[in-house]
Amino acid sequence: HFVPNLTIGAPVIESLRKHTKAYLDCHLMVTNPSDYVEAFGKAGASGFTFHIEVARDNWKELIQNIKAKGMRPGVSLKPGTPVEDVFPLVEAETPVELVLVMTVEPGFGGQKFMPEMMDKVRTLRKKYQSLDIEVDGGLGPSTIDAAASAGANCIVAGSSVFGAPDPGQVISALRKSVEASQIKS
Ligand SMILES: O=C(CO)[C@@H](O)[C@H](O)COP(=O)(O)O
């Protein structure tokens, strides 16, 4: 109900958790993220990322609750939201540990990467050297270098991985680009 689509909820996280110790990075595109903290924590989510656009009045409490339930807090911003809006959350006494810069209008996979969002990534990386900066939307072998060289170190990729004949090869290409950019910086 923040975006016009429905995908994965806490029951899926719970089922996955029975089979893996992997980091389960959950991006909640919902209008009321507070209502889901407990369920996602219980289900075994590792990270809980909410949208700044729906948490302008309660982000401090939300971050604290996420941490109290044993998850890493993250904040996401839509393409039209200025990057400055998340600075207070990164600089708070109890800060977010990840910023997710949306590189498409959230809601659907398979959209085109918005290179102009890289200014936000560069700004964040310059200001916060050790922050996890995630990008989501249209990432794949042809767009990864732009994101990685801007400073993104967490990459969300749907179509480019699941649509590839060899998904492992795409994942390694994405990882190599991020690692190469980190060595240079
Ligand atoms: O769900 C969204 C946006 O809300 C997608 O951005 C996927 O998370 C990634 O999909 P691709 O863009 O990689 O196909």
From TrEMBL:
UniProt keyword Isomerase present: yes
CDD domains listed in its UniProt record: RPE (cd00429)
UniProt-listed GO biological process terms: carbohydrate metabolic process
Pfam families with a match to the protein in the record: Ribul_P_3_epim
MF GO annotations: metal ion binding; racemase and epimerase activity, acting on carbohydrates and derivatives
Keyword Transmembrane in annotation: no
Keywords, alphabetical: Isomerase, Metal-binding
Protein name as catalogued: Ribulose-phosphate 3-epimerase
Classification lineage: Eukaryota, Viridiplantae, Streptophyta, Embryophyta, Tracheophyta
